[in-house]
Amino acid sequence: MSILFWIRVGLLCALLWVGGIRPVFAHASLLSTFPEDGAMLQEAPAQVRLVFNEPVQLTQLQVLDSNGQVLPLENLVSSGNAPQGDLPAEMPEGVYIVSWRAISADSHPVGGSFVFLVGAADPELLRAARAAQAGDPFYWPLVGVSWGIYLGSLFVVGVLGWWRLVRGRSGTADEIELSAEAWAFAAAWLTLSLTLVALGLHLAQLYPHFAGPELLSVLISPYGWGTGLRLVGLGILIWACEGGPRWANGLGSVAVIGSFLPIGHALPSEYPAGTMALLGLHLAGSAFWLGGLWGVERLLSRLRQRDGVLEWTSQSAGVIQRFSDVATWAVPGLVLAGVGMGGIHRGWDWEHPYGQYLWAKLLLVLMIVGLGAHNKLRLLPALREGVWSAGRSLRQIVRLELVGLVLVLALTSFLVAQAPPGQGAGPACQETLSWPEGSLRLQILPCRPGNNRIQVEVKGIPAQELSLEFDLPARGIPPLRRQALPREPGQFEVEDVLLPLAGEWQLKVRLLVSDFEERREQVRLRVEDR
Q: Closest by alpha carbon to 95, among 134, 61, 123?
């Protein structure tokens, strides 16, 4: 079987793998609500409160009663980690639905809803209301549009960069330049249109009833600045395609690449400046790779054979060789930049969907790098010697590389629409305990003074019961004992653990394995004001 067969099999396996990953839809994470989702209260609550892992800007907080009437909220706090509003003093018995929308710190829209019951209303109404809660209808359209924006932006920047590589170096330079101009012009207009569509979807996701002042708040956000910069950059590149000066290519390309830096995971990361620098290098390298492969495919499409002899110019072969030489260091550079960003986001956790997408993207990129190495070391030397079959195989593999890059950009659109473990879960304390037969991983979220949630995962040990004990000896706080509730085999959780002060807390873990066996350990975890 040929190498092309196994390449196609590998791409198919990658698609099947990615299709089985469960997506995570939010950026800012909702840590808790008051009332809790599904709570059955004897008396009406005085307020509704949301607690996030990072500051957000609410664009909607709405409470509906059983008749679909909107309850007025007073003293509304719409920004910060814990937005809230006071409920009316008189609330009749029944089911209430709270819906909210917000802009997260990375400029992505987030939203959701929860329900609670007051008084002696029928609990079946509560279950029916929870079952009727719908997902975000804008998620998949935004993922698709984002993919088009990434593909179009990088294609335009890469193809116009390919012009400068080709110009004056090949007898087919003029023909390719005209072709590149037409393709880049069309792609720039399409990407500009998709950017406007994405802005409309973004506004619809944030504001159910859109008004003028709300547009201004979006436009002055990092998302608005990035969108505006991209529109300007694409406009400059369209001008360059229509005969503008050469410097317009560079200026427009820098603007388009820069437009992605304030939008996404870089801005709220632990090291925003470093992350944005890595992201810029990653995007610039990706644009060069995509545009260069397109140019190589265009050159290879002009291969001709006469009487068994390959009709091929040494200038064209030299252009491909130069692209290969630059790609030798540029592609590993963009891969390392991507790996670095994954490390900053703590995104390489295989058990997290973000980590699974990230690993899939890395493995797919490595497959494409392997194809490029095969081209450079075997096919390109044979092509320069005039071997016809080498040129034909090279063009087929270049096309597969282009398909692979399109899939990589599709994975990227999934990644930017989801929260990495380092952001989605918020700041956290975690500790791992190991024994010969298994391990226990404990995480406290958000690891700040106040209410926290504790998640525990036990592997290799048939855990029956788990209890935890907290104390802060330096501040004279006696032990706080809590029993962890099992969620599923090996998974435990404790909600609303009040850690009132910052400091180094002692945590005693008691894991019951059987009626005759248990594990006891003690760890220290630092809770800090952030």
A: 123
Answer positive or negative: Cα dihedral of 145, 147, 149, 152: negative
Q: What is the DSSP letter of 302?
A: T
Q: What is the pLDDT of residue 298?
A: 84
pLDDT at 257: 93
Q: Which residue has the tokens 């719409």?
A: 78
Beta strand 485-488 with 491-499 is: antiparallel
Residue-wise pLDDT tens digits, 485-524:
887 778 888 887 878 787 888 888 888 887 777 888 888 8
Instruction: Tell me if 170 sits within 8 A of 319, measured CB to CB.
Output: yes
Amino acid at 199: L
Asked whether 202 and 159 are in contact (CB, 8 A), the reply is: no
- Domain residue spans of the chain: 3-21+138-423, 30-131, 427-527
The reported pTM is 0.67
DSSP string, 400-458: HHHHHHHHHHHHHHHHHTS--HHHHT-S-EEEEEEETTEEEEEEEES-SSEEEEEEEEE
Task: Among 3.40.50.300, 2.60.40.2480, 3.40.50.720, 2.60.40.3230, name the CATH number for the domain at 427-527.
Answer: 2.60.40.2480
Classified as helix, coil or strand, 69 is coil
Confidence of residue 18 (pLDDT cuts 50, 70, 90): very low
pLDDT value for 252 = 92
Q: How far apart are CA 238 and CA 216, in angstroms?
A: 27
| 436: exposed, middle or buried (Cβ count in 10 Å: 0-12, 13-18, 19+) | exposed
What are 125-138's pLDDT values in tens digits?
556 555 555 556 77
